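Quick one, tokens below. Sequence please?
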């Protein structure tokens, strides 16, 4: 019969001279007069880094209406402006420390005079009636 080869086991070394036996030792670093921290330099977050995400906006079509739902937390009803023209809806809002502006392309043309809004608990709901599209059949004669 043939000889069996002895397989070496690969694993973590029991002792590593380079790290004095403690492979995963974390060194504590003193950062500019603050408490030592084991992960090195900490980043301080500024207002720009902690920017609020853009408000969520959904567009729904149901029957003869188009409904737009937008999350506008922190804005007052008086400071929200909605404009409609053709297939374009413009939302803008102002607060003391921030602004919001968004232009949406609607899936169909709408009637601007049918605009109905409801603002409750930071959620703006806009309901618009779709414009009737007349199809003209031409008969050659």
């Amino acid at each position: 019969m043939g000889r069996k080869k002895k397989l070496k086991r690969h694993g973590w070394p029991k002792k590593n001279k380079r790290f004095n036996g403690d492979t995963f030792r974390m060194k504590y670093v003193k950062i500019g007069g603050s408490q030592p921290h084991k992960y090195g330099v900490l980043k301080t977050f500024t207002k720009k880094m902690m920017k609020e995400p853009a408000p969520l906006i959904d567009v729904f079509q149901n029957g003869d209406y188009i409904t737009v739902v937008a999350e506008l937390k922190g804005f007052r009803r008086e400071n929200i402006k909605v404009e409609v023209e053709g297939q374009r809806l413009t939302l803008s809002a102002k607060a003391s420390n921030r602004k919001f502006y968004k232009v949406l392309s609607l899936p169909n043309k709408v009637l601007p005079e049918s605009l109905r809004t409801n603002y409750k608990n930071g959620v703006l709901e806009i309901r618009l009636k779709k414009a009737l599209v007349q199809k003209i059949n031409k008969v050659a004669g």
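The chain is about 0% helix and 30% strand. The mean pLDDT is 76.
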